[in-house]
Amino acid sequence: MSMKLSHQLVTERAFVHTELPAAIASDALADEGGARTKVDRSFELPTGLYAVTVGAYLGYLAVMGLGLSAPGLAIPMAIFFLFVIAGFGVPALWVRMKPDHADRPLDWSAFRRDGIMTMTGRMGASAATVQVVILPVLILGWGVGIVTIRAMIG
Question: Scanning 27, 54, 90, 108, which has its CA 20 to 30 A from the CA of 44?
């Protein structure tokens, strides 16, 4: 439950700390001295999974564009293609930026051996692959199904 606290009660019981704890103060001083922050932009996934994801989304757009082709859809489909390319291209370029970091996307052997660490714990390679690829593959399958139904109905 919540209750309203009066200003007087808060000022009587509040503790005011004027100094930083030693660990925080030493980190703050180190940051002021020009120490660089460690940046990990690799997302700990192999490039192949990234490529499969991009390919599935572009495949969906290709299936829908070719299967439901109409002159009025040319410009929207081109815009969708550009959004997907930009949406996946910018993070791909982001990984290649060079702010003094040694992190690279995992190669397949390291991914299969170690898996990846998630917020809920370590995940094996097969489970991580399914988790990453399932949505794009389902969307591609949905597009194939829509185009198939459209072709059957006429």
Answer: 27
Q: Please name the helix (run of DSSP H) or strand (run of DSSP E) that holds residue 118, with its range, or none.
A: strand 116-118
Judge whether 41 and 122 are in contact, CB under 8 Å: no
Kind and range of the H or E element at 4? none
In whole angstroms, what is the distance from residue 112 CA to residue 43 CA? Answer: 15
Give residue-wise pLDDT tens across range 41-65.
Answer: 666 778 889 899 999 999 999 999 9
Other CB atoms within 10 A of residue 28 CB: 11
Report residue 102 as tokens: 């040694």
Burial of 77 (0-12, 13-18, 19+ CB in 10 A): middle
- Between CA 38 and CA 97 the distance in angstroms is 13
Residues in the chain: 154
